[in-house]
Amino acid sequence: MQMARPGGRGERSGGGTRRAGVARLRARRGARQSPAGAAARVERDMAHLLGAERLHLEFPTRVVFDEVTLGIDEGDRIGVVGRNGDGKSTLLKLLAGRLEPDGGRVTRRRGIRIGMLDQADVVDPGKTVAESVVGGIAEHVWAGDAKVRDVIAGLLADVPWHAHIAALSGGQRRRAGLAALLVGDWDVVFLDEPTNHLDVEGIAWLARHLKGRWASDAGALVVVTHDRWFLDEVCTGTWEVHDGIVEPFEGGYAAYVLQRVERDRMAAASEAKRQNLMRKELAWLRRGAPARTSKPKFRIEAANQLIGNEPPVRNPVELNRLAVSRLGRDVVDLLDVSVVYPVVDAAAGAPAEHMVLHGVEWRIAPGERTGILGVNGAGKSTLLGLVTGAVQPTTGRVKRGKTVKIATLSQELAELAEWADERVSAVVAEQRSAYRVGQGSKAVELTPGQLLERLGFTSSQLSTPVKNLSGGQKRRLQLLLILLQEPNVLILDEPTNDLDTDMLAAIEDLLDSWPGTLLVVSHDRYLIERVTDRQFAILDGHLRDLPRGVDQYLELRRQQADAARPADSGRPGFETPAVRTPQPEPAAPTLTGAERRTAEKELSSIDRRLDKLAAEVARLHERLAVHDQSDYAGLAVLGDGLQQLEASVAELETRWLEVSEAIEG
């Protein structure tokens, strides 16, 4: 039975229930960690592996890092986040010794072994997969190493072992490079976007491998990735790269988000107080020219300091709801649809048929938000083609509503090819001279330039030719052009490519308020659980509903692998699992009917109490923000009350997780 605490869409999806609850619990614990606790962590007896002192790096057009100091100790598992172009990959290259800073230095412990996977790393195309991964080591030697077997099974189960690298696809080459790195012994591993070209199962395997690669107080990992589920699963610390600095946070992605929100809230409260001072100062200064020259100079200097310290506004990422075409009750119905493709039987050398989809029955409802899961080649693109009309069924029929207007955000960015030499602002201006954003009295009319700025483009980027944009900028422009067509059915095919975590959060916020029907195909588990309400999987040509979401999909894939796994892979002492997933957790005891009903009632009660406490916490935060900051006694009372409320929330969340797991078990 699906049970989830009300909240974001990721919490409502069955597969994300437990993960969302655990993430919230970790986040709160990370945010509540006191300075004394953080200091205790630093004082633990952990060996220092490498450090950076006052790093300075400049490119011709900007300063990338200025006076950056940080360190990596044994046991660190660090995720690096930040906007595209802010220097995440550059930071890894500096720490790994692949790039020398203009100022400062990087120190490394004597004898330290550093391994790195760069986005630009390529495997020698003249070698075979076996030569690239294990080199000239005899097969009976590497096959006896459990770690090597695990890496090969996890990343290369579907890659021909003796094929040449040149014959592989780009994704297979990337996985071969990752496997070649992971079979080695390293004290520090740097990974730059390791989840690219991995499916949901591959990402789950990689997370399990990295978590078990070293003892908890040994080795170190620094990873740049936009996969937020992976960050939360693997990392115990987060570095945010922005504005030439590196800001550390405790915990994984969920804890980082909560701490960042708290930081921004405190900064907003401080800024509100400072703005009040600014108004008072400027009002005093504006009483006339004689006053400005005759009053004490320190008053003028104080006002100038307040104005001079005004922090720059960070690149805004905002796009309110755009219009959509009216959608009737009928969207798209797939009625007993099968799709068969002609192939050539290699053994017989004769034409044959390959059934991709079989007996698919799917009635898409207005406003439906669905995620599609499946391994590469399972038929996801074929299924989407049936919805859009690009693929015709071999048997069965597809029925479309008269008002349906479908748009697809594809992986290839093909929509931008015809505008490659056009300026960004000109591309949007060609669609319409003005755009109306929002609804009712809150609706505003924006120029193309203003609309682009709301989606994260700076003024200087508006005159940039489309062909010179970064991958993330092209993806944002592509999405904007699609939304301006006012579709009522939106299909997203791997939409997270080339987007940083901030932009992903902004896109998800936009999709939250988008009123049409949404179909998503993605290997990004966080995105799937965040923006969709239900998930389907394509398994053996059939479309299967997943009430428990991604977790259920991984279990089904594991069962398929266990049923189909051969007794011997053909390599001495080596057994290849066909699916790359974490080991299943111990099953919880099954509840009786009466026990389940009692647990469901308790869960509903906890939900209501948590909502009430959340409202009280919000009110107390507002009181703290406007309270006189010089009234230390009053602030202490409010702080004690806030601490008690948060302790109550933590206890209830822990109990909510226990009850929810018992029901799901």
UniProtKB/TrEMBL annotation:
<protein>
    <submittedName>
        <fullName>ABC transporter ATP-binding protein</fullName>
    </submittedName>
</protein>
<feature type="domain" description="ABC transporter">
    <location>
        <begin position="332"/>
        <end position="565"/>
    </location>
</feature>
<dbReference type="GO" id="GO:0005524">
    <property type="term" value="F:ATP binding"/>
</dbReference>
<dbReference type="GO" id="GO:0016887">
    <property type="term" value="F:ATP hydrolysis activity"/>
</dbReference>
<feature type="coiled-coil region">
    <location>
        <begin position="596"/>
        <end position="655"/>
    </location>
</feature>
<dbReference type="InterPro" id="IPR017871">
    <property type="entry name" value="ABC_transporter-like_CS"/>
</dbReference>
<dbReference type="InterPro" id="IPR032524">
    <property type="entry name" value="ABC_tran_C"/>
</dbReference>
<keyword id="KW-0547">Nucleotide-binding</keyword>
<dbReference type="InterPro" id="IPR037118">
    <property type="entry name" value="Val-tRNA_synth_C_sf"/>
</dbReference>
<feature type="region of interest" description="Disordered">
    <location>
        <begin position="559"/>
        <end position="590"/>
    </location>
</feature>
<keyword id="KW-0067">ATP-binding</keyword>
<dbReference type="InterPro" id="IPR003593">
    <property type="entry name" value="AAA+_ATPase"/>
</dbReference>
<dbReference type="Pfam" id="PF00005">
    <property type="entry name" value="ABC_tran"/>
</dbReference>
<dbReference type="InterPro" id="IPR003439">
    <property type="entry name" value="ABC_transporter-like_ATP-bd"/>
</dbReference>
<dbReference type="InterPro" id="IPR027417">
    <property type="entry name" value="P-loop_NTPase"/>
</dbReference>
<dbReference type="GO" id="GO:0003677">
    <property type="term" value="F:DNA binding"/>
</dbReference>
<dbReference type="Pfam" id="PF16326">
    <property type="entry name" value="ABC_tran_CTD"/>
</dbReference>
<dbReference type="InterPro" id="IPR051309">
    <property type="entry name" value="ABCF_ATPase"/>
</dbReference>
<keyword id="KW-0175">Coiled coil</keyword>
<feature type="region of interest" description="Disordered">
    <location>
        <begin position="1"/>
        <end position="39"/>
    </location>
</feature>
<feature type="domain" description="ABC transporter">
    <location>
        <begin position="50"/>
        <end position="268"/>
    </location>
</feature>
